[in-house]
């Protein structure tokens, strides 16, 4: 066994595990921060009286689930820490492995909701639903406020003034109000405070703002005063003498700087006629060169944009008007929340904060949680917003330095990329310096990089040492660079390139060629393509598809844009709103009907389209099928669940046969969504809103993963491609109000005034700094290979992220050479391989004479069961609840083993990993607590037998077109049947359907005769069930391959074909 490498920051890691101290840890990419969090959590378990005394907050649900799973998995490891924690668990009778819910590892939204539910009175969110899309609620609140313009509301004059500020453009007013309501947790206290202060003292707003303006001027002018020389002062006088201007910087700067606040490259009479004097012009040009070389461009640019020392009366009044209107809009939104019993995530966090503080005193709820929580761990602390920081501060408000309570935050300012969620990276630095509340935090710095090979770490160090400042101004998002130390060496597979191309087509060709080469060299290597925006990808996705490269997008393709979903939405509207003519035409052009344009013209000329379809149904088969399906569905619309009616109608129209298998999966997601919507499913607009929040998910994992850089946060790939870095991003929408607290006052401005312009300038600086950090996140996802590229026209300067790479990129003007690259076989070359066998591709439309349903021998065709959902046959007709729970648990575990390919790590490793997850699965199942230990023990025995058996390993291995717990809906006889297949895959030219059985013989199995009798009985028992499975799968795959069915007995490790 190789010796474990001791990282250079081991002393910092050791300190982080000191459970008596509070720390804030800067942990760069690949430094193992999750492992550190898990180890600290386990060490804290050694000192607490209850696991609930530890609260861990993660950024995402996935991160929370991973952390909990790693803690539970660690408890099963053969290590000193695991043994000590297990002993503590047993001594305190916690039973963590059987009660994983006692580990409080949550997202901040989840914990805030838990807390807000306990608030008494009007502020409680108990019984309120979380709005999936709150925009309609914001729209209603904005409309309600603006609608009070002609009411008796005393505030109508403020509303009138607000509209007048926007040239009485109600649409613009509504849009700006909606944008502000989405982040009201950031400003509601501010606007309420300003409104109250102004009502008591009309000059109070001016006092606040003027104090902040004075502080701002001092901050901006200080570096200028420190940098100017006697020669600079003399030049101001010289220019003043030549131009007649005042010898002051504000008067002279317009001559030196462009409208973009950059030094002028040339001087002409356009700026001032004094530049006609060549000697004077040369003198000023030389001075500009000197100022530029001394790094004063940004200082002087900031100076030129500074607002005046005092706020004007007009701007003061505008701030008051906007503050009052925003506060009123928030009140209208709160009324809507109460009426509809819904709330958004911001509302939950705001109520949680309210529940922790009443005026200036902690509430009973705050004292209750102060008693319960003794230790807090915060992950991704660099992306904390101000409202979240206040929440954490209130939770720890009662803590003292010597009471044993600890606060532990970990993050990486260089990976702070969530400004659009109001994250402020300066909070991290603020806590490093001042702690949180009364708790001092000891700063720690990790430097080891366990992820990337040596050359990649060194390249990133060099690049970002140039891009990120040595000394940052965190208020403006200028994060100080911290170099990483590589732990891994280089490998033969290591690759690094940074290239630019004269056109995007060549860039795409090079990317595709490189990916093909990587796949040929290593078919198991993980490849990530990361982009800044989804709309950058269409041409590359098409090129990958043309090259026959399997790729998978994560949240790339909106589900609503899938043709099969659009057809389902049309069918949905037709059943609920038969007069919607556009939906009729959309459905008629779908693959299920395939009506010609001529037919549509005829239908469009008629008065009632449904009557015309009934008439066409007497002579044309496809319209007869449509008529029959609708007639079947209409009387059932309000008698059965809507999702079942829609699914049954869609199947009768031929939906299962009209689309390729990958599109059928999208349809199943739509039906699941419709079921989840409940009564809201009868509102077509509401369903449309819900669908628009989903993305199409691939059927199977692919070697090439495609996602945005933000989505890649926390992930890693063997090889990473960063294409199209010269593409522009959409600019931020203008904000109605901007603000920045200062130590002396408050800098606040309304859109259009000088202070707002300055704050907008600062926001642009923050945005530019975050773009550099976004590039850092992308580059640090790579383990072995990094391929950075962009396109730039000849004689043009790089833009976007590419402008930061000009000194590192080399030109690539040649097209890739196809003859040097191995490509996947196509056409007849693939005919004999399993890998390319797939269900039928998308049809233009079904045959005109397509007939719904097929009679199956032995099937019950005596009556149309229509919507009766046929559940999977039980394991044993006489099974008790324990046996049923055991079977469900084994099924879940086997699905996880197959989906994760855990068996590739060896059966021992796979068994250990799945065993660590059994307790949480048992808890989620709702099984009787008294049976948990027995369930885990028996499931573990079955899984061990399965993983050790040759048949079990074959069933769980990676296969082509493989599925686990595959939901299918098909037609058996005249019945719509919903089926779930445990395992289905293609192997050796055969489609295999495997059904898991946890049953074992009750009699002595020592005799082969008795065992064979048991197998024969079980095969006979489930013959009809497997026949149904075979019928549906054969229809789906168009009988391209033979279908074989087998039972796999998990407790015996044997496979028996029927």
How would you describe this structure to a colleague?
It is a single chain. The chain is an alpha/beta fold and 1058 residues long. α36 packs across α37. The longest helix has 28 residues, at 313-340. Residues 815-843 and 854-879 have low confidence and may be disordered.
For the largest beta-sheet, the strand count, sense and barrel status come to:
7 strands, parallel
Helix content: 40-55%
Beta-strand proportion: 5-15%
Tell me the radius of gyration. Answer: 33 Å
Adjacency order of strands in the biggest sheet: 15-16-14-17-20-13-21
Gross morphology is: globular
Rounded average pLDDT? 82
N-to-C CA distance: 46 Å
Distinct helical segment count: 39
Strand elements, count: 26
Oligomeric description of these chains: single chain
Poorly predicted spans: 815-843, 854-879
Please state the structural category. Answer: alpha/beta
List keywords for this structure.
single chain, 1058 residues, 39 helices
Describe the secondary structure blueprint for this structure.
Blueprint: H1 10-16, E1 23-26, H2 33-45, E2 54-58, H3 61-74, H4 80-92, E3 104-107, H5 108-117, E4 129-130, H6 135-146, H7 156-165, H8 170-181, H9 188-200, H10 204-227, H11 230-243, H12 249-256, H13 278-293, H14 297-305, H15 313-340, E5 342-343, H16 345-356, E6 357-358, E7 361-362, H17 364-372, E8 375-378, H18 386-395, E9 406-411, H19 426-434, E10 442-445, E11 448-449, H20 454-467, E12 485-486, E13 495-501, H21 504-521, E14 527-531, H22 538-546, E15 551-553, H23 563-576, H24 581-588, H25 597-605, H26 609-616, H27 621-633, H28 642-652, H29 655-658, H30 661-677, H31 684-691, E16 704-708, H32 709-712, E17 717-722, E18 737-741, E19 746-750, H33 754-779, E20 782-791, E21 810-811, H34 881-900, H35 907-925, H36 932-948, H37 950-956, E22 960-972, E23 975-987, E24 990-997, H38 1008-1021, H39 1023-1036, E25 1043-1049, E26 1054-1057
Parallel strand pairs: 1-9, 1-10, 2-3, 2-8, 4-5, 8-9, 11-12, 13-20, 13-21, 14-16, 14-17, 15-16, 17-20, 24-25
Antiparallel strand pairs: 6-7, 18-19, 22-23, 23-24, 25-26
């Amino acid at each position: 066994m190789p010796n474990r490498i001791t990282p250079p920051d081991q002393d910092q890691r050791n300190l982080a595990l000191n459970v008596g101290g509070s720390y804030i840890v800067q942990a760069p990419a690949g430094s193992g921060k999750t492992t550190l969090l898990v180890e600290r959590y386990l060490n804290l378990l050694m000192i607490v009286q209850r696991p609930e005394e530890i609260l861990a907050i993660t950024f995402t649900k996935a991160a929370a689930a991973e952390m909990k799973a790693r803690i539970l998995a660690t408890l099963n490891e053969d290590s000193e820490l695991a043994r000590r924690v297990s002993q503590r668990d047993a001594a305190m009778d916690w039973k963590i492995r059987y009660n994983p819910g006692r580990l409080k590892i949550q997202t901040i939204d989840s914990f805030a909701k838990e807390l807000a539910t306990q608030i008494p009175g009007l502020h409680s969110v108990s019984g309120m639903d979380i709005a999936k899309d709150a925009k309609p609620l914001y729209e209603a609140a904005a409309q309600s406020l603006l609608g009070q313009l002609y009411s008796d509301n005393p505030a109508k004059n403020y509303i009138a003034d607000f509209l007048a500020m926007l040239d009485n453009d109600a649409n613009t007013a509504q849009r700006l109000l909606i944008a502000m309501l989405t982040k009201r947790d950031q400003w509601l206290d501010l606007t309420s405070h300003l409104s109250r202060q102004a009502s008591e003292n009309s000059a109070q707003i001016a006092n606040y703002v003027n104090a902040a303006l004075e502080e701002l001027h001092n901050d901006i002018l200080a570096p200028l005063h420190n940098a100017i020389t006697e020669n600079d002062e003399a030049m101001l006088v010289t220019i003043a003498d030549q131009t007649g201007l005042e010898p002051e910087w504000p008067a002279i700067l317009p001559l030196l700087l462009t409208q973009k606040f950059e030094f002028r490259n040339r001087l002409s009479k356009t700026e001032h006629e004094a530049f006609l004097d060549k000697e004077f012009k040369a003198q000023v040009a030389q001075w500009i060169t000197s100022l530029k070389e001394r790094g004063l461009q940004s200082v002087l640019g900031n100076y030129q944009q500074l607002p005046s020392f005092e706020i004007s009366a007009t701007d003061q009044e505008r701030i008051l008007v906007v503050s009052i209107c925003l506060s009123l809009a928030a009140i209208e939104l709160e009324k809507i929340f109460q009426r509809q019993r819904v709330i958004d995530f911001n509302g939950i966090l705001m109520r949680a904060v309210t529940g922790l503080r009443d005026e200036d005193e902690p509430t009973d709820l705050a004292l209750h949680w102060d008693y319960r929580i003794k230790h807090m761990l915060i992950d991704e602390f660099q992306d904390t917003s101000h409202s979240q920081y206040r929440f954490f501060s209130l939770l720890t408000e009662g803590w003292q330095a010597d009471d044993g309570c600890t606060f532990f935050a970990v993050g990486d300012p260089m990976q702070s990329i969530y400004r659009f969620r109001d994250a402020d990276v300066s909070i991290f630095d603020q806590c490093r310096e001042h702690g949180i509340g009364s708790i001092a935090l000891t700063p720690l710095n990790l430097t080891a990089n366990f992820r990337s090979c040596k050359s990649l770490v060194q390249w990133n160090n060099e690049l970002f040492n140039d891009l990120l400042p040595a000394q940052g101004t965190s208020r403006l998002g200028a994060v100080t660079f911290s170099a990483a130390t590589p732990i891994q060496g280089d490998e033969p597979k290591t690759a690094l390139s940074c290239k630019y191309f004269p056109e995007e087509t060549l860039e795409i060709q090079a990317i595709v060629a490189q990916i093909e080469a990587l796949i040929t060299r290593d078919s198991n290597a993980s490849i990530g393509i990361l982009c800044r925006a989804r709309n950058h990808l269409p041409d590359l996705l098409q090129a990958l598809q043309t090259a026959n490269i399997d790729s998978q997008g994560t949240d790339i393709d909106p589900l609503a844009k899938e043709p099969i979903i659009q057809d389902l939405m049309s069918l949905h509207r037709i059943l609920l709103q038969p007069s919607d003519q556009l939906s009729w035409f959309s459905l008629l052009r779908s693959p299920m009907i395939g009506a010609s344009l001529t037919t549509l013209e005829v239908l469009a000329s008629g008065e009632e389209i449904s009557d015309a379809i009934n008439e066409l149904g007497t002579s044309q088969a496809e319209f007869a099928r449509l008529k029959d399906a609708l007639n079947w569905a209409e009387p059932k619309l309000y008698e059965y669940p809507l999702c079942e009616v829609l699914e049954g109608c869609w199947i009768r129209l031929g939906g299962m046969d009209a689309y390729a298998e990958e599109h059928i999966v999208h349809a199943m997601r739509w039906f699941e969504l419709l079921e989840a919507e409940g009564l809201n499913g009868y509102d077509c607009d509401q369903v449309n809103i819900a669908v628009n929040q989903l993305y199409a998910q691939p059927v199977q994992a692919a070697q090439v993963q495609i996602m945005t850089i933000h989505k890649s946060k926390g992930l890693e790939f063997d090889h990473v491609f960063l294409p199209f870095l010269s593409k522009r991003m959409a600019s931020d929408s203008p904000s109605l109000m901007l603000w920045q607290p200062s130590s002396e006052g408050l800098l606040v401005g309304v859109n259009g005034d000088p202070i707002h312009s300055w704050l907008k300038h600062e926001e642009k600086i923050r945005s530019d700094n975050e773009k550099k950090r976004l590039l850092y996140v992308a580059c640090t996802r790579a383990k072995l290979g990094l391929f950075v590229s962009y396109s730039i026209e000849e004689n043009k300067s790089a833009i976007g992220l590419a402008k930061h790479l000009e000194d590192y990129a080399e030109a690539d003007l040649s097209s890739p050479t196809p003859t040097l690259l191995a490509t996947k076989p196509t056409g007849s070359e693939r005919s004999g391989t399993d890998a390319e066998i797939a269900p039928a591709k998308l049809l233009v439309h079904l045959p005109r004479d397509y007939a719904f349903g097929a009679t199956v021998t032995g099937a019950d065709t005596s009556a149309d069961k229509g919507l009766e959902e046929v559940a999977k046959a039980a394991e044993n007709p006489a099974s008790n609840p324990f046996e049923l729970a055991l079977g469900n648990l084994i099924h879940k575990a086997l699905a996880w083993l197959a989906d994760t390919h855990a068996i590739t790590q060896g059966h021992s490793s796979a068994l250990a990993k799945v065993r660590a997850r059994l307790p949480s699965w048992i808890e989620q199942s709702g099984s009787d607590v008294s049976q948990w230990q027995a369930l885990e023990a028996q499931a573990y025995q079955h899984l061990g037998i399965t993983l050790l058996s040759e048949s079990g390993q074959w069933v769980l291995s990676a296969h082509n077109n493989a599925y686990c717990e595959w939901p299918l809906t098909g037609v058996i006889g005249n019945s719509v049947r919903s089926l779930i297949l445990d395992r289905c895959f293609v192997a050796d030219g055969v489609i295999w359907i495997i059904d898991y059985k946890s049953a074992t013989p009750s009699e002595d199995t020592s005799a082969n005769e008795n065992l064979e009798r048991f197998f024969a009985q079980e095969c006979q028992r489930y013959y009809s069930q497997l026949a149904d499975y075979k019928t549906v799968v054969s229809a789906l795959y168009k009988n391209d391959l033979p279908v074989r069915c087998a039972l796999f007995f998990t407790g015996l490790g044997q496979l028996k074909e029927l």
